[in-house]
Structures are given as structure tokens and as C-alpha cells.
Specification:
Layout: E1 15-19, H1 22-26, E2 34-39, H2 78-86, H3 92-109, E3 110-120, H4 125-136, E4 141-148, E5 163-170, H5 196-201, E6 208-210, H6 230-240, E7 246-249, H7 256-263, E8 267-272, H8 275-284, E9 289-292
Parallel strand pairs: 1-8, 1-9, 2-3, 2-7, 4-6, 7-8
Antiparallel strand pairs: 3-5, 4-5
Helix pairs in contact: 2-4, 3-4, 6-7
Length: about 290
């Protein structure tokens, strides 16, 4: 007779919250120390945003650690790509100069089997894709994920925009962590076309994720304006890290990445310079260690 044993719950992972400028803090963290980096930077929607503008550094294409020359988008070095983009849209300068050095740090901080998820508004996804190609190389592009939802006002003058874009890049193509068996399954759209066993199990999600925003009266609601739902972050953490791995979020906000990662047995480092965000995170994760940079 086969005896089934209950699967033990993962040991709660540690959470470190660091308050301060994320670029300055990122530069102090050791290279190749994170299996997963999730970035959810401020969306460049035209509204005033408080952020530090830093000029992009890489122009030679040379890796600072190995001295190896890395070519990105169509073999162009970033300064040339930057010039090409400016010729189409001079508003690129502000967002590009803000985002580029943080993407470079994300590349440095990723372990060889690591993955970056960059969560963006549709207005910036095409610019960020070019920047990521320049930093990681086009061969390191894994996926463009679309998070689709149906909430809020609907325009009657164009197709209503109800999605975010998440660009996924890996440090080592083919050598990255991807736990397909651990990811939550979805119902088949036509369950009658598959076996009963497959229908009961569900299917692996595609690159289009239908998921509600954080419900107004839901359990996980913190009141932070840019809070992302746990279901989206859980899928990312389950797929691209293992229990005991380290996860980094440089725009931590309400701390969803840390809450999910810790519950799944990962160790999380969360960075944000907003005192309100830090307060919400400490309320949400009382076991977190908090430091000020």
C-alpha cells in the first residue's frame, strides 16, 4: 500500500527592507547574488514624478567585470541606440537616462541562472526593449508577457488600454531557472478538446495573463497606489526562483514581491526611498529587517 506524505510548507524566507536611492543601494550589493530581479519602475505617463536622473554610462559595450565586449541591439552600442531613439522622440532622454543604469545594475546583480522581469506601461515597453537588448543582448530575451485586466474607465474614441507589459530577460539563455511544474495552472478554454485528465489539471499559462487588479476590499489591499496583485508576482517567483534563492525588487512600493517571495521560502531584498512605502512594508511583513541607506 502506498502511503502519501503531506508536502511540507516552505520555511518563511527572510526579508530585508532598505530605504534609500535604489541606484546607490544597488551598487553596494554583490554581483551575481540574485536569482530573480523584479523591477516595477514609475510609468513615464507624462505626469510629474520625483526621480533621480542619471546619465547612462555604457558606451564601449565592455563588461566591467570581464572586459568582454557585449553588443546589443543590431550590434549597436547603447550611445548609438540612444541617439537613434532621440531622433524619433526627444522625451526618451529623461526616462532612458533614469532607467538605463538601473538595468545595468540588474544585469550585474543577476546570478548566471537568473532572470529579470521588467514591468512597464505600454508607452515605454518599446524603448525599454531596446535598452534591454543593449544591456543583455537580444539572445537573452525570453518573453514579452501581457498582463490583461478589465477595470476602470473605457475610452469611446480608441481601443481601451487594459494591459501592462512585462519584459523578461535571462542572464544565460538555456541556463536559467524555469520551474514549469510549480506554476499555477489555468483552465483550458475548450476543455472538451483535451482528455479529462488534462482538463482537470489545467494548462500552463501562456504569455498573456488574465488577472484582476488588487480588489478594493480584498485581503491584500494596502492602499498603496501602484500595488500589484499577489497572483501576478507569485507566478513570477514560482517560475524563476527556488526555495532558498534571493529575490530583489528595487522599486518595492507596497512590498508585494517580498510578501510573496517570503511566503514561498525565498529571501527578498526590497528597496524604496518613499517613507510611506517602507511603513506599509513593515506593517505587511513584521518579520522584515529594516535599514536606512
Amino acid at each position: 500500500m502506498t502511503v502519501s506524505h503531506p508536502v511540507p510548507e516552505p520555511v518563511e524566507g527572510s526579508v530585508s527592507i532598505i530605504q534609500g536611492d535604489n541606484l546607490a543601494i544597488a551598487k553596494t550589493l554583490p554581483s551575481a547574488s540574485f536569482t530573480l530581479v523584479y523591477l516595477d519602475p514609475p510609468f513615464n505617463t507624462g505626469r510629474a514624478q520625483n526621480r533621480q536622473v542619471v546619465t547612462a554610462r555604457r558606451s564601449s559595450g565592455e563588461d566591467e567585470q570581464t572586459g568582454e565586449v557585449r553588443h546589443g541591439f543590431h550590434g549597436h552600442q547603447y550611445e548609438r541606440v540612444r541617439g537613434m531613439l532621440r531622433s524619433y522622440d526627444d522625451s526618451f532622454d529623461d526616462y532612458g537616462d533614469f532607467l538605463m543604469p538601473r538595468l545595468e545594475e540588474a544585469w550585474r546583480l543577476l546570478a548566471d541562472d537568473g532572470t529579470l522581469y521588467l514591468h512597464l506601461d505600454y508607452r515605454e515597453a518599446h524603448y525599454a526593449k531596446v535598452m534591454l537588448d543593449a544591456v543583455f543582448g537580444r539572445h537573452c530575451f525570453l518573453n514579452e508577457l501581457i498582463w490583461a485586466y478589465d477595470y476602470g474607465a473605457k475610452s469611446r474614441r480608441r481601443w481601451p488600454t487594459k494591459h501592462d507589459t512585462i519584459l523578461v530577460y535571462v542572464k544565460t539563455p538555456g541556463g536559467h531557472v524555469f520551474n514549469s511544474d510549480d506554476i499555477d495552472r489555468e483552465p483550458y478554454m475548450a476543455p472538451g478538446l483535451v482528455t479529462a485528465e488534462k482538463a482537470a489539471r489545467g494548462k500552463l499559462p501562456t504569455d498573456v495573463w488574465w488577472h484582476t487588479i488588487v480588489p478594493t476590499m480584498g485581503r491584500e489591499k494596502t492602499g498603496y497606489p501602484t500595488q500589484k496583485p499577489e497572483g501576478i508576482i507569485r507566478r513570477i517567483v514560482q517560475a524563476s526562483s527556488r526555495p532558498g534563492d534571493r529575490v530583489l525588487d528595487l522599486f518595492a512600493g507596497s512590498g508585494t514581491t517580498g510578501a510573496v517571495a517570503s511566503a514561498l521560502g525565498r529571501d527578498a531584498v526590497l528597496v524604496d526611498d518613499n517613507p510611506e512605502a517602507v511603513h506599509i512594508m513593515t506593517q505587511r511583513m513584521p518579520h522584515a529587517e529594516v535599514t536606512t541607506f
